[in-house]
């Protein structure tokens, strides 16, 4: 409540003589929180509350400028107080893609998301964002044995299993790091894309980009189409991937000239992401006490299993999933392939 009082005082200084209300808008997996300020004329603004002891607003501001310069629709910065960790932003609404998507609008909304991603990637240049390098990709992979296997499932790996998993991780990293590099949002999915009420304003609104990096070109498409929160029929997702690949080639982006090669890169990038996400979701529960992501574990594991079944090199991962699927997770969520999140078929 103390932070909220400070925000109220800050806004009162920004808007002398104006009446406004302040209500919670959302929170994310970090320490950031968001409030919606509604002025007396009905105008709304969003306040990002990022406690300086835990969060740094500067990476967010840096990426906001880059993505806005690329022509993507991101929140505008209207005021800032970095010492206290407050940003006043334009309001992109409260309807995420996850909330809005249905069989009637999915094709149009994903077309918009792909077009916006191409704009961001076209603005890419090295040395501007942190490199999504071997060390960072590897740290993410290591979350899987530490948090998902050991902490969440109490699975102790044998030396042979450790060596097999290490070999798989090295193969995954080799494929990931061989890809051309572009700006990577890193969480380009249905919860971070906003459906804008007025299409003329530009769909989608893009949020939660502060962890953007310079890395593999297929990463954000893997985030978008292998979404932890919503599943689409594989043929439909493949069609969207082809459409992206065609637009990227036409725009001059460095995607592989052969779609089959690009598809393999995309699949293996997805594997890296799924392994990471399983570890992160488990860590959010066991370390941070946040159980809201446990229900999403089965869908992520399902994506990972499908890739492992397509590529024999990933068989050690598949065998570990076999062990996991015989167990029941915390709060009763199972890893059975039939137990998934929202599925959408067309």
From TrEMBL:
Protein name, per record: Aminoglycoside phosphotransferase
Pfam families on file: APH
Domain of life from the UniProt record: Bacteria
PANTHER family the UniProt entry points to: N-ACETYLMURAMATE_N-ACETYLGLUCOSAMINE KINASE, TRNA THREONYLCARBAMOYLADENOSINE BIOSYNTHESIS PROTEIN TSAE
GO molecular function: ATP binding; transferase activity
Domain Aminoglycoside phosphotransferase: from-to ranges: 21-245
Swiss-Prot/TrEMBL keywords: ATP-binding, Nucleotide-binding, Transferase
SUPFAM superfamilies: Protein kinase-like (PK-like)
Keyword Transferase appears in the UniProt entry: yes
Gene3D superfamilies per record: 3.90.1200.10, Phosphorylase Kinase, domain 1
């Amino acid at each position: 409540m103390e932070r909220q009082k400070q925000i109220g005082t800050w806004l009162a200084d920004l808007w002398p003589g104006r009446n406004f209300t302040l209500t919670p808008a959302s929170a994310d997996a970090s320490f950031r929180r968001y409030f919606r300020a509604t002025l007396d004329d009905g105008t709304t603004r969003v306040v990002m509350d990022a406690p300086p002891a835990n969060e740094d607003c500067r990476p967010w501001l840096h990426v906001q400028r880059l993505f806005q310069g690329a022509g993507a629709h991101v929140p505008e910065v209207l005021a800032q107080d970095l010492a206290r960790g407050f940003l006043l932003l334009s309001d992109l609404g409260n309807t995420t893609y996850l909330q809005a998507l249905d069989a009637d609008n999915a094709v149009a909304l994903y077309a918009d998301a792909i077009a916006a991603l191409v704009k961001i990637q076209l603005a890419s240049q090295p040395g501007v964002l942190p490199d999504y390098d071997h060390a960072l990709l590897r740290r993410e992979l290591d979350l899987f044995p530490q948090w998902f296997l050991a902490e969440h499932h109490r699975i102790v790996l044998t030396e042979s299993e450790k060596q097999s998993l290490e070999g798989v991780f090295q193969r995954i990293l080799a494929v990931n790091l061989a890809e051309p590099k572009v700006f990577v949002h890193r969480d380009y999915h249905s919860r971070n894309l906003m459906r804008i009420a007025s299409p003329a304003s530009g769909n989608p609104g893009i949020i939660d980009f502060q962890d953007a990096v310079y890395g593999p070109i297929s990463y954000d498409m893997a985030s978008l189409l292998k979404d932890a929160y919503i599943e689409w029929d594989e043929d439909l997702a493949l069609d969207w991937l082809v459409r992206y690949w065609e637009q990227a080639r036409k725009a001059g982006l460095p995607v592989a000239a052969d779609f089959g090669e690009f598809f393999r890169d995309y699949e293996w990038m997805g594997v890296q992401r799924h392994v990471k996400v399983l570890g992160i979701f488990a860590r959010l529960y066991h370390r941070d006490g946040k159980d809201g992501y446990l229900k999403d574990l089965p869908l992520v594991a399902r994506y990972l299993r499908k890739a492992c079944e397509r590529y024999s090199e990933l068989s050690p991962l598949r065998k570990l999933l076999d062990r996991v699927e015989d167990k029941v997770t915390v709060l009763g969520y199972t890893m059975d392939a039939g137990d998934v999140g929202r599925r959408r078929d067309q």
